[in-house]
Amino acid sequence: xxxxxxxxxxxxxxxxxxxxxxxxxxxxxxxxxxxxxxxxxxxxxxxxxxxxxxxxxxxxxxxxxxxxxxxxxxxxxxxxxxxxxxxxxxxxxxxxxxxxxxxxxxxxxxxxxxxxxxxxxxxxxxxxxxxxxxxxxxxxxxxxxxxxxxxxxxxxxxxxxxxxxxxxxxxxxxxxxxxxxxxxxxxxxxxxxxxxxxxxxxxxxxxxxxxxxxxxxxxxxxxxxxxxxxxxxxxxxxxxxxxxxxxxxxxxxxxxxxxxxxxxxxxxxxxxxxxxxxxxxxxxxxxxxxxxxxxxxxxxxxxxxxxxxxxxxxxxxxxxxxxxxxxxxxxxxxxxxxxxxxxxxxxxxxxxxxxxxxxxxxxxxxxxxxxxxxxxxxx
Length: 379
Fold this sequence. Notes:
Elements: E1 2-6, H1 12-20, E2 26-31, H2 34-37, E3 46-50, H3 56-63, E4 68-71, H4 75-87, E5 91-94, H5 106-112, E6 115-117, H6 126-137, E7 140-152, H7 167-175, E8 178-182, E9 185-189, E10 196-200, E11 204-210, H8 217-220, E12 226-232, H9 236-246, E13 254-256, E14 259-261, H10 263-275, E15 283-295, E16 298-309, H11 318-335, E17 343-345, H12 347-351, H13 354-366, E18 371-378
Parallel strand pairs: 1-2, 1-4, 2-3, 4-5, 5-6, 6-17, 7-12
Antiparallel strand pairs: 7-15, 8-9, 10-11, 11-12, 13-14, 15-16, 16-18
C-alpha cells in the first residue's frame, strides 16, 4: 500500500513511523511546515512532502497518487480536507476532530465507494468503539459515561496543562456547549459546567467537567443516559472560565491600534508557548469508559480503563500514542479487509463487530496501549 498522512504534527510523526514498521507499505507525510517535516529527514522509509493543505484542491490532487489516507489536519480545516479525500475516492481514517457533522459527507462517501472512519482517536475514538461494543453485547444499555484527559505528569504553574493538539482546538473544549443525553432527552449545558472531583489510582484527584465529546454517539446509539467529561488538574476550570467570560476566547474581531484581530487568535498565540509539550516532556493519558445495562436479566457494569504514559524508549508522547495508534490500527483493519462498511463510519460502528474490537484492542496492546476491562454484576 502507498499511504499518506496529512499533517506532520505531534501525532502525525508516530503514526507515520508506526505504519512504516510494516515494511511492505510506502509512507509519505505532507505538511506546510518545513520544521515539522524536518523530523523525518533521517527516516529513509518515510517521504516528507511540503504542501499547503489548507486548499482542498491541493489535497485532492495530492492524495490521488495514494491507496490510503490518514487525515490528521487541525479541526478547523478537517472537514474540508476529508471532503477532498472522499472526492478523490480514497479510503481514509480521520483524526481531525472537526466540529461539523461528519454524516453530511455520508452520501458523497457512498457515491464514491469510500470507507471513511472519523473521530478515530482515543476519545473520541476508542471510547466510542467500547461504548458501541458493550451496547451491542447487552440486551439493553441504560448508561454510558466517558472520563478522559491528557495531562503533563509534572504540574507547572500557572496552567498545569500542556496541549497535544492545536491550542485553538483545545480551546473549543472550553467554549463549545456540551451536549449529553439524560433520560432519553438531549441536554445542552455550557462547557466547563458541573465540575466534580474524581480520584484515579496513581494520579490522585482530578477535576471533571462537561465537554462536547459524545459527538456521533448522540445520533447513533440509543442509550438513554450518556455523558462525556474532560479531566484536568484541580483549579484549571476556574482559570479557563475566567478567560472565556472575559472574552479572550471570542471569535468576534475587535480593533486594536487600527488592526482588527480575533481575541481567540491572540489568546492562542500567547498560550501556545506555555501549553507546548516539549520534546521529552512526560505526559499521561487517562480514560475511563463505563457502560451499564441488562443482559439475560442481570444488571451489568462494564468498565474499561486506560492509563498511558510517555514512551521513553521511542520518545513518543502518550496522547500521540493513544490517538495515533488507534488510527493506524484502524487503517490496518480496513486495508486487511476486516472492516468494509462504505460511507462515513463513526467509531461505534466498529464496536458492533466483535472481531474488529478484538483486532483494535490487540493491536493497541502490542504497542503498549493497554485497556483493562472489568465486568461486574450489580444489585
